[in-house]
């Protein structure tokens, strides 16, 4: 009888999995917008004359506010102090605001050659919008992680986190596959607008979740009162943990070798593998399909059998192999690109399925929001700097290509050729050899180095687990 009285909403499998679907679909939409421009790299460079450095500035904007303005740290503190509901709604609104600014960047007809703070106006506004959006998206990410811990701890937590990540990766597929087709049928601004409208649906789903969370909070009110409230001083517990830093740096290195791949993969497919720009996102879009199936599977394995640190190491090793394949200049067959992306999907399933559920084994519950925020903060340093570095290296190792491309665009505009036809004409000049193709081999060495370092930190984490007894190699499901 007593047990029946103590049962709460999260004890119902149907209720907690419905919650998971609500927040997962919101993250799916967020990741769709995150990658909405990724498959359009060649199209945007040919239409607006962006250089590799310009592209890197926009795609690296994920960390400008999150890192330099410490917005991610602030989001974590807000999450621990103000709670899940406040942070969820706030992050949803910020995502929409950033998306609107980014849409304006492409919908507005900027004067050719105009600049803001020495940066091309369209590049500056687009980067600003993406930076604002990413404050909301990363805030949503740490909030969803905290939601899953709240509803699934002691149950199928790794499976739940794996399922959420799998659906988020589906959002990447929708962007990589759908964005070029929308841009081709309508325009680049239309592709951004569709993503912006979808974010409004995501905000509604967060609101529905909050209604369920209110009900759960009433049921566990007594438990909540017993827990000591979060204090800023509690951040010291996180910062002093060596295991935390190993997992944070592994996260930085691993994600820096995956998400920037999305941003530069369409250019690689066009310039190395000879794929048509209008379908350049198709091969990279295969990646999420493996993660959709495998991330929940590996999460289930971690829940039932453990081996979390070993799973992370295996994923990092596979990533070394993947980027080495992409680096080797002589490997240019289409099937090689497909094989490497499939392998990347497996690697991308292994590490996150074990990494995120391992954090609650290292950090106490009341500091989890800040812990996830700090990890996302460290991760964002890589997601900001690596694309910029990639863009600069791409330009430096391909001298004269940007100048010839920009000259061709100006000539076509002077001839009165419509903007939506310029990209195809520039690509024709590339195929004819009048404008050289970009060589990505030096750029890809950066990815190879990142993955090797990620493997090293995977082994360091496993060694620390043996010393401190975090239980990373033990099952998550409590018997």
Automatic annotation (TrEMBL):
Topology of this chain in the membrane: Multi-pass membrane protein
Q: Which Gene3D superfamilies match?
A: MFS general substrate transporter like domains (1.20.1250.20)
Q: Name one GO cellular component term.
A: lysosomal membrane
Q: Pfam families attached here?
A: MFS_1
What superkingdom does the record give? Bacteria
What this protein catalyses is: L-aspartyl-L-lysine(out) = L-aspartyl-L-lysine(in); L-histidyl-glycine(out) = L-histidyl-glycine(in); L-histidyl-L-alpha-amino acid(out) = L-histidyl-L-alpha-amino acid(in); L-lysyl-glycine(out) = L-lysyl-glycine(in)
- The residue ranges of the Major facilitator superfamily (MFS) profile domain are 19-466
Q: Which GO terms describe its molecular function?
A: transmembrane transporter activity
Q: Where are the transmembrane segments?
A: 15-34, 61-79, 86-105, 125-145, 157-178, 190-211, 244-263, 283-302, 309-328, 334-359, 371-394, 444-461
Quote the subcellular location field of this record: Lysosome membrane
Q: Which UniProt keywords apply?
A: Lysosome, Membrane, Transmembrane, Transmembrane helix, Transport
Q: What role is this protein assigned?
A: Lysosomal dipeptide uniporter that selectively exports lysine, arginine or histidine-containing dipeptides with a net positive charge from the lysosome lumen into the cytosol. Could play a role in a specific type of protein O-glycosylation indirectly regulating macrophages migration and tissue invasion. Also essential for liver homeostasis.
What's this protein's family per the entry? Belongs to the major facilitator superfamily.
Report quaternary structure and partners: Homodimer. Interacts with lysosomal protein GLMP (via lumenal domain); the interaction starts while both proteins are still in the endoplasmic reticulum and is required for stabilization of MFSD1 in lysosomes but has no direct effect on its targeting to lysosomes or transporter activity.
Q: Which PANTHER family match?
A: MAJOR FACILITATOR SUPERFAMILY DOMAIN-CONTAINING PROTEIN 1
Identify this protein by name.
Answer: Lysosomal dipeptide transporter MFSD1
